[in-house]
Design a protein that fits this description.
Length: 170
């Protein structure tokens, strides 16, 4: 799929089929995350691949929407702040790196005809417990991964002129 078309096609999928995700497609999605750029190439993120079969109730405690556990797989991107590059003024890029990895996952999934939905509004304490995350591993984003069972809504975005400025702020 051409890149501009891929970007247009991606949307937040909030209904999923139970059809399994082909292993080869999952491998390509994960490889896209592996190749994501990170600050100073520190790669301070990890991806957890979680099967939802038989665990819907437990996993559903992290985010209480039925579609969250409807797909066969759930992906979690976590960051490891101790491994992340930190700017001289103290700004850590751990979250930024994890977000880029997540976006690579999402776009690669779209290219495979798979659906995703960024979930940031999860319960971090529940995620920590259910995924057995040790101290120093921070959950950043979740997404179901499966074939879409809904239709893309119309995209609502600000005009480019509002989002882009030339040379300086004003
Ligand atoms: C960082 C981030 C966090 C998000 N968290 C949630 C969430 O917790 N629940 C949800 O339903 N959608 C969530 N979304 C999806 C957005 O609502 C969605 O991307 C936005 O409305 C644009 O719609 P589209 O993705 O269909 O183009 C999140 C998206 C991003 C980028």
């Amino acid at each position: 799929m051409e890149f501009a078309e891929l970007v247009r096609r991606r949307y937040s999928v909030r209904a999923y089929k139970r059809d399994p995700v082909p292993e080869a497609a999952l491998a390509r999605v994960l490889e896209a995350a592996r190749l994501a750029p990170t600050a100073a190439n520190r790669q301070p993120f990890r991806v957890l691949v979680i099967r939802t079969e038989g665990r819907k109730e437990e996993l559903g405690r992290m985010y209480q929407r039925s579609w969250f556990v409807e797909a066969p797989l759930l992906l979690a991107v976590v960051c490891l702040p101790a491994e992340a590059w930190v700017r001289r003024d103290g700004k850590s890029y751990a979250d930024v790196d994890a977000a880029i990895a997540m976006d690579h996952l999402v776009l690669a999934a779209t290219a495979e005809g798979l659906g995703t939905c960024w979930v940031g509004a999860f319960d971090p304490a529940a995620a920590r417990e259910i995924l057995a995350l040790p101290a120093g591993v921070e959950p950043i984003a979740f997404s179901p991964l499966g074939f879409p069972a809904d239709q893309p809504p119309e995209k609502k975005r600000k005009a480019l002129a509002e989002l882009v400025r030339r040379e300086r702020w004003s």
